[in-house]
Amino acid sequence: MLVDSHCHLDFPDLIADEAGALQRMADNGVIHALCVAVKLETLPGVLGLAERHANLFASVGVHPDNADCDEPDEARLLSLAAHPKVVAIGETGLDYYWHKDAPEWQRARFRTHIRAARRCGKPLIIHTRDAAADTLRLMREESADEVGGVMHCFTETREVAAQALELGFYISFSGIVSFKTAESLREVARFVPSDRLLVETDAPYLAPVPFRGKTNQPAYVRHVAEAVATARGETLQAVADATTRNFFQLFKHAKPS
Q1: Cα 86 from Cα 46, distance rounded (Å)
Q2: What is the tens place of the pLDDT at every residue in 35-65?
Q3: What pLDDT was estimated at residue 68?
Q4: In whole angstroms, what is the distance from residue 36 CA to residue 87 CA?
Q5: CB 38, CB 7: distance < 8 Å
Q6: What are the tens digits of pLDDT across the range 216-255?
Q7: String of b and e for 116-146 (b: at least 16 CB within 10 Å)?
Q8: Is 112 in a helix, a strand, or coil?
Q9: Alpha carbon of 182 to those of 106, 173, 193: distances in Å?
Q10: Looking at the whole model, is its pTM more than 0.85?
Q11: Band (102; pLDDT cuts 50, 70, 90)
Q12: Are 218 and 3 in contact (CB under 8 A)?
């Protein structure tokens, strides 16, 4: 049994075939999925999915790439996070790839999410791209280790992984780990302890081999787990067992259906 620890089932490519996506999850042994919010404006769709399906969970947050959107403060994040199906704060973090000027508003937003997570006791879902040093610095300055969380869709170095692990965070691998050019990432997958490992799709993006270039979906997390298992010299069952156990260890408000 597998869990997709990060997907966007509310996005148009997937919500148009909601029943089909859920059936394909079941057919591939994917028993749960976490539907991750990226904007407050689209949060009702994320919460609606979690309310309709016992095996889906939700998060609350604003993605660092979204500049022109409803900006959350701590009070609003806390209010929204009180929903019984919300198990995490995020996705949040820093992205200097799309925002090369490293805007202060992005760092301020990240701090707001960390503070809200600490206050409500729900873990963080962190996105970082071309911003690892600042991401880790803000995590330390805001005591993100008090609640922990996950470095989602991890593409950074072993050293960055080690520092995140020291802060009590989990490391999640997406379909990128299956790409032919991702040997350095597979080295990180071998390095991460089995009790801090997660797998995800980030659907509808980043479909794993052999579906690369197609619309991703939670059912494909099986192929991510297979790539991680191959990299680690372990069985698919071992990776499935570990990542499912880790998911419910980290997201303590998620109740297995």
Answers
A1: 10
A2: 999 999 999 999 999 999 999 999 999 999 9
A3: 84
A4: 10
A5: no
A6: 999 999 999 999 999 999 999 999 999 999 999 999 999 8
A7: bbbebebbbbbbbbbbbebbbebbeebebee
A8: helix
A9: 28, 11, 19
A10: yes
A11: low
A12: no
If we measure between CA atoms, which residue out of 8, 62, 54 comes closest to residue 31?
54
* CA–CA dist 75, 206 (Å, integer): 33
Q: What is the pLDDT of residues 165-186, one digit of tens each?
A: 999 999 999 999 999 999 999 9
What are the angstrom distances between the C-alpha of 226 and each of 3, 4, 155? 13, 13, 18
pLDDT higher than threshold 80 for residue 163: yes
* Beta strand 56-60 pairing with 169-173: unpaired
Task: Spell out the residues 6+ positions from residue 237 whose beta carbon is closer than 8 angstroms to its own.
Answer: none
Angle at the Cα of 213 from the Cα atoms of 209 and 218, rounded to 5 degrees? 65
Strand partners, 57: 34
Continuous H helices in the chain: 12-15, 18-27, 43-52, 74-81, 104-120, 132-141, 158-166, 183-191, 221-232, 236-250
Angular region, 130: left φ>0, alpha ψ -120 to 50, beta rest: left
Largest CA distance in the chain: 46
SS (H, E, C) 60-108: ECCCCCCCCCCCCCHHHHHHHHCCCCEEEEEEEEEECCCCCCCCHHHHH
Burial of 48 (0-12, 13-18, 19+ CB in 10 A): middle
- The 3-state DSSP class for residue 219 equals helix
